[in-house]
Amino acid sequence: MPCPLRGTASYGRGMEDDSVVIEQFRAAVDRRLADLLPDGAARPARLAEAARYAVLSPGKRFRPMLTLLTARAFGAGPLAALDAACAFEMVHAASLILDDLPSMDDAALRRGRATTHREFGEATAILAAVGLLNQAFGVISGDERLPDAARAGLLHRLSDSVGFEGLVSGQALDLNDRDHVRTADDIDLLNHRKTGVLMVAAAEAGALIAGAPAASVAAVGEFARRLGLAFQIQDDLIDAAFIADTGKDLGKDLGKDAGMTTLVTVLGPQEAAAAVSAHLAAAQAALARAGADGLLARYAFGLFEARKAAA
Amino acid sequence: MPCPLRGTASYGRGMEDDSVVIEQFRAAVDRRLADLLPDGAARPARLAEAARYAVLSPGKRFRPMLTLLTARAFGAGPLAALDAACAFEMVHAASLILDDLPSMDDAALRRGRATTHREFGEATAILAAVGLLNQAFGVISGDERLPDAARAGLLHRLSDSVGFEGLVSGQALDLNDRDHVRTADDIDLLNHRKTGVLMVAAAEAGALIAGAPAASVAAVGEFARRLGLAFQIQDDLIDAAFIADTGKDLGKDLGKDAGMTTLVTVLGPQEAAAAVSAHLAAAQAALARAGADGLLARYAFGLFEARKAAA
Q: What residue segments make up the domains of chain A, in order of their start?
C-alpha cells in the first residue's frame, strides 16, 4: 500500500515541538475533564464515581484533540475550544458504556479494566452514560467563552452526531443487522455512524469555534469522515490478519463482533487496503483544501501509522 | 384538608373556554411530536418505532402543557414555545423508558401497554431513550423561532434538570438507597429530583421564551416545584389508602416500589396530607407573585383535583 503521507512537505519537521504541544493539549483535556465531572460531593456518590471511572480512564482523547487541533489550525487560542473538546470525550465515553452493556456487546473489559457496568452495576452504568451525554450538552451550553450563536450551532451539530442519524442509530444498526448480509455501502454507513460521525462533529466544532469559513468547516468534516472510515477498515484488516496468522478470531475471543461482515470480508484484504489508502488520501486532500494541513495532519496521520505499526 | 384553591376569583369562570384551549394545546403537542420524531424512513426502522411508541402513547402531556401555558401566561404566542414544550415530553418519555428497564424497576406495563423494552427489546429501548434525550437538545438548539441566547439558556437549564443533580441523580438515588432508612428531607430531595425537577424546567422554559422577568421565571419554577412535590405525596397517600383498604400493596402488585419509604410512612397520613396542602398553597402563592394565576393555575390545580378524585 502506498503511503498517502509521502511527499507532504511538513512531515518530518518539528516532530519534537509537535509532541510537546500534543502532550500539553492532552493534559489540559484530562485536567478540565476532571473539573467538569461530578465529584465526591455529588449525590449519590456512586453515580459520580461511575461517570469519572468511564471518562477518566487512560486514553488518547482523540476526539477532543481533533477539536483543539482544528481550532488551533484556524487560529483560535488553545482554551477557546477546551470545554467543547471535553464534551466530545464525555459523549464518546457514554457511547462506550452503552456499547459494552449486557444487552449490547456484553463486554467484560475495556482498555484492560472492567467495563463500567461490571464495576458499578448495570443501572448505575446506564445512568452514568445518560448523565455524561447530558453533561456534554450542559458544558457547551454553559461555556461563556463562546458567543450564543456558536453555542446553539455546536449543540445542534452535537445532537445530529449522536441521535437517530448518528451514534445511536449506528449502534442500533450494528445490533439489529448483525446476522444480515451487508453490502459495502451498508458497512460504510455503519462504520460512519458507529464512530466517524462523532469525529466529524469534533473536528467541525474546532473550526466553528475558531470562526473558520463554512467551506473550511465542511472540509475538516470530510477529513474526519475519511479518517474515521480509514481507521475502521484498518482495524478490520488487523483483525483479519490475526485470524489468518493464528486461526483464532480476535473478536470471538473478546466475546463480541464474532463473525461479523466487514469491508475486509466483503472486498477481500487487498481491496480493503486500497480503500484505506483512498480514504487517507481524500482526508489529506480535504485538509489541504481547508488550509489546515499542519500539526492537525501530522497528529492524525501519525496516530494512524502508530496504530498500524503496533498491530 | 382545606382546598387551597377556594377563594381564587378566577376559579369557576370560563371552564368551557379553558377546556377548548387546553385541548387545542394538547393536540398541537401531539401533532408536533409526531413531526419531530424519526419516521419510517429512518434506519434502523425499529429504533424509530420504539421512540415513537414511547413518546406517542396516550398521555396528558403535562410537562409540555406547563411550558405552553406558562408562555401564554406571559404573553407569548402559542407556537413560540411549541418545540421546547415537545422537547420536555421527549425527555419525560426517555426517563420512563429507563425507569422501567430490567436493571431498574423491571416493569412490564406502562399506561396499560407493554413497556418499551418488553415490546422492542432492551438494547433498542435503551438506544431509543438516549436518542430521545438527545433529540430534545436537538429540537431546542435548532428552533429558529428562538433567539440564540434563549436557546443556549434553555439548553443549559434542560441539562441541569436531567443530569447529575437532576433526573439521572434522582433515579440513581432511588435505586441505590432503596433499602436505607430515609428522612423526610431525603424523600423531598428524591421526589424533587425524580419528577419535580423536569416540571420546574418545563415551566421556567415557558416563562423564558415569553421574555418574563427573572423574578417571574423563578416564581413559576417554585410553583412547579411545589406542585411536583404535592403530586408525589398525593400519589403516596393514594397507595397507602389502597393498602389500608385492601391489605394489598399496589406497588408490590406492579413489581416495583415495594415497601419503599415515603413521606406517608415517615410522617403518617395526616401530616402527609397537611404537607400536600402546604405545597399547593405555596404553589398558588408563587403563581400569584408571578402574576400568572389564570388558565395555568386552573389547569394545574384542576388536574391535581381530578387525579385525587379518580383514585
A: 15-310
Q: What is the pTM of this model?
A: 0.92
- The fold for domain A15-310 equals Farnesyl Diphosphate Synthase (1.10.600)
Q: What single DSSP character describes residue A9? A: T
Looking at the complex, report in whole angstroms how far the Cα of residue A48 sits from the nearest Cα belonging to chain B: 8
Residue B38 has pLDDT above 60, yes or no: yes
Residues from chain A contacting residue B138 (CB–CB below 8 Å)? 155-156, 159-160, 163
CA distance readout (Å), B8 to A159, A178, B12, B285: 44, 61, 9, 11
Q: Which residue has the higher pLDDT, A215 or B265?
A: A215
Residue B15 pLDDT greater than 70, yes or no: no
Facing residue for A164 by CB, picked from B47, B123, B171: B47
C-alpha dihedral (A290, A295, A297, A302), degrees to nearest 10: 180
Instruction: Indicate the residue of A148, A168, A177 with minimum beta-carbon distance to B152.
Output: A148
The shortest C-alpha distance from B224 to chain A (Å) reads 22
Are residues A243 and A105 in contact, defined by beta-carbon separation less than 8 angstroms? no
Q: Cα A222 vs. chain centroid, distance in angstroms?
A: 14
The three three-digit cell numbers of residue B187, written as one number: 424523600
Residues 6 or more apart whose Cβ sits within 8 Å of residue A94: A54, A128, A129, A130, A132, A133, A136, B130
ipTM of the complex: 0.91
Chain A contact set for B51 (CB, 8 A)? 164
In sequence order, the β-bridge partners of residue A39 are none
Beta strands, E only, A85-195: 109-110, 113-114
Closest CA to B201 of B230, B235, B234, B165: B165
- Among chain B residues, the shortest Cα distance to A104 is held by B123
For residue A248, pLDDT beyond 70:
no
Please give the pLDDT value at position A307: 84
Would you list the DSSP string of B120-175? H-HHHHHHHHHHHHHHHHHHHHT-TTS-HHHHHHHHHHHHHHHSTTSHHHHHHHHH
Through-space distance between the first and last CA atoms of chain B, rounded to whole angstroms: 16
> Mind listing the pLDDT tens digit for each residue in B70-117?
999 999 987 899 999 999 999 999 999 999 999 999 999 998 999 999
How far, in Å, CA of A272 to CA of A235, rounded? 11
With vertex at residue A90, the alpha carbon angle to CA B196 and CA A138, rounded to the nearest 5 degrees, is: 40
Q: Are A239 and A250 in contact (CB under 8 A)?
A: yes
Residue length of chain B: 311
Indicate yes or no: CB of B172 within 8 angstroms of CB of A44: yes
Chain A CB contacts of B151 below 8 Å: 148, 151-152, 155
C-beta atoms of A169 and B44 within 8 A: yes
**What number of helices (H) and strands (E) belong to chain B?**
15, 2
Among A48, A155, A169, beta carbon nearest to B164:
A48
Distance from CA of A307 to the nearest CA of B (A): 30
Rounded-to-integer distance, Cα B276 and Cα B235, Å: 10
At A210-239, the pLDDT tens digits run 999 999 999 999 999 999 999 999 998 988
Query: Residue B243 burial by CB count (10 A; 0-12/13-18/19+): exposed, middle or buried?
Result: middle
